[in-house]
Each structure stands twice: as structure tokens, then as C-alpha cells.
């Protein structure tokens, strides 16, 4: 079957119900994922990480970054607690990194 501009939804043609559902789901997931930016961090004591070397702090920060990204992409309301804890953990790691002069760059935003 050939697609023409008349029946191809990407070329200005008619969109079926499935196309609207796909767009709706994509919009919902995107909206939920972007809300993670507004979740405040939970306090995590830096003393939990004082025993780590600079290398270990860097490795833990990378692990947290991957976990935070995964939780943010999931976009479920239940993930807000996890995202908040991950953000707080990252702040604690950054504080210990600064105290130990680890020269690790933490990006915010």
C-alpha cells in the first residue's frame, strides 16, 4: 500500500485515533518527566559520605545521575520521593567533594 499526502498523517493527511493516543501518551510522559525539575531535594547528611575517596565520590555521583535520569523519565508521582532523595544525596556528595578538594564538577539545572 502506498502512502500519499492525503492519507499520511505526517504530510498533513488525516490522523487516526491511534495517532491521537500516541501523541497524548507522549505529551503526558513529557509533562510528568519535566516536573522532576520542581521536586526539592530531601536533606541527606554529608557525613554519610565522608569516608569515601574523591574517586568513590565521583563514581557515586555518576550512579546517582543515572538513577535520577531514570526516575525522572519514569514520570510517576511515586517517583517524586525517589527523585527528592537522589537530589539530596547529590548535594551531600557535592558538599563532601568540596570539603575534600576533589575538583569534581557538579552541574546544576
Give an account of the 3D structure.
This protein has three helices and no strands. 55% of the residues lie in helices and 0% in strands. It has one domain. The protein starts with 16 loop residues before the first helix and ends in a 10-residue tail after the last helix. It is elongated, with a radius of gyration of 21 Å. The protein is mainly alpha-helical. Helix 1 packs antiparallel against helix 2 and helix 2 runs antiparallel to helix 3.
Task: Considering the chains and any ligands shown, give keywords for the structure.
single chain; 109 residues; mainly alpha; 55% helix; 0% strand
Could you provide a short overview of the structure?
The protein has 109 residues and is an all-alpha fold. The protein contains three helices and no strands.
Beta-strand residue fraction = under 5%
Structural class: mainly alpha
SS summary, helix count: 3
Measured as a percent range, the helix fraction is 55-70%
Radius of gyration: 21 Å
Kindly give the count of domains. 1
Described by the principal axes of the CA atoms, the overall outline is elongated
Major sheet attributes:
none
| Quaternary status | single chain
